[in-house]
Structures are given as C-alpha cells and as structure tokens.
C-alpha cells in the first residue's frame, strides 16, 4: 500500500503525544522520495476540461483532476478539490481500510463555529482559561483511552501501537530517508488479518504476504501475493 502517506501523518500527530514508555523500534525518519525527472516523465496527462488540477495526495509527484464533493476518494485516488477533504463515512468501523481502498468520500471542510469569548488585547484568538483546561484534560483522557484500548485488545494492536510510536518519533529527527515501512492490519479483536501489506511513500504499491492470524508470522512456504489477492 503506498498507502497511509496521508493517514500516517494524521495518526502521528495524535500518537506522538501518546508515547509513554513503550518499546521503540528505531529512529528512522520518514520522508517522501524526491520527484525525479524520470518519475515526472511517467505522469499521465490530465484530462482536458478539468475544473481544478492538483498534485496527487501524500507523496505523489503527478498532477491530477481534483475530485468533487461526494465523490469516492482514498490514498490511491486523485485529490479532493479545494475546500474538501477525503474522510471516511460517519460511523465507518474501518476508516483506515476505507482510505486505502478508495471508499472514503470528499466532504466539505466545516467552517469554524463563531465564538462569543472576549479577545485579549494584541491577540487574534479568544482566551477562555476554563475551556482551555477542559479541552486539555479531555484530549489527555482520550489519548490514554486509545492507548489502553490498543494494548488490551490483542497482539496486532500492540504491534500497531509500537509501529506508530516509531513513526511519530522518527518524524522529529533528521537522518536517512525511509520510504517503506510496515503497519499491521488488525481485525476488530486485535488479531492479525490474514493478508498483511507493506506501506510505501515512494509512489509504488508495497509487497503483501499471508500470515497466521494469531501471531502475525508469515505462513511457512508461502510467497508474496498481489495486493488484490485474498489470503486463506
């Protein structure tokens, strides 16, 4: 999956504050591969009459015709147009799956609600100490709940948490580029889904393989499978 280029950025922004002593798998930073002349020369032409042309999401190098409100979108699709963002449907039990399979929807970015708070002199944002404290406590409680849920639900969720913590830490450090990495694909019980795939930030789909659902180990004697192939 070249996948998660966009999703990972969102997850990292939340989980970077959630690192509370779990094992770290390495400090490798994650950055997009450069858009070389060779890659740009392979980009398809944009269809004539396109209302808005934008660069592909994530680490894409090519230009694409932007999607309109209500159209299906995801990691591999063209980007949503101005004022829109690609989000899973409300109540979607597998939001990451929807984003990687192009089953999310381009929706309008909501306008910020007006506030009745007073503004401090010299500042352009309202100041409400009680609301700020409540929001901070609420966010802290949510992060703790997310971490607890991940740890308690199963081995796949534990590995997923560690992988996200690794990415969150690596975003803050300089070093060699990392364009491929692995995020476990878990079911609702915290076990591994039969097919696992490598994530990629270099514009190419990562390799996939079949695993044991209990421990995530690759099945003995099995070869890599295509991204559209199901595992037993």
Automatic annotation (TrEMBL):
A single Gene Ontology CC term: extracellular space
Keyword Signal: yes
UniProt domain Thyroglobulin type-1: residue ranges: 153-231
Segment forming the signal sequence: 1-21
Function: IGF-binding proteins prolong the half-life of the IGFs and have been shown to either inhibit or stimulate the growth promoting effects of the IGFs on cell culture. They alter the interaction of IGFs with their cell surface receptors.
Organism from which the protein derives: Periophthalmus magnuspinnatus
Compartment(s) of residence: Secreted
Protein name as catalogued: Insulin-like growth factor-binding protein 1
Subunit composition and interactions: Binds equally well IGF1 and IGF2. Interacts with integrin ITGA5:ITGB1. Interacts with VHL; this interaction inhibits HIF1A degradation.
Keywords carried by this UniProt record: Disulfide bond, Growth factor binding, Growth regulation, Phosphoprotein, Secreted, Signal
Alphabetical list of CDD domains matching this protein: TY
GO-annotated biological processes: negative regulation of developmental growth; regulation of insulin-like growth factor receptor signaling pathway
SMART domains attached to this UniProt entry: IB (SM00121), TY (SM00211)
Ranges of residues in domain IGFBP N-terminal: 28-109
InterPro entries reported for this sequence: Growth_fac_rcpt_cys_sf, IGFBP-like, IGFBP1, IGFBP_1-6_chordata, Insulin_GF-bd_Cys-rich_CS, Thyroglobulin_1, Thyroglobulin_1_sf
GO MF term set: insulin-like growth factor I binding; insulin-like growth factor II binding
Gene3D superfamilies: 4.10.40.20, Thyroglobulin type-1
The keyword Ion transport appears for this protein: no
Pfam families reported in the protein's UniProt record: IGFBP, Thyroglobulin_1
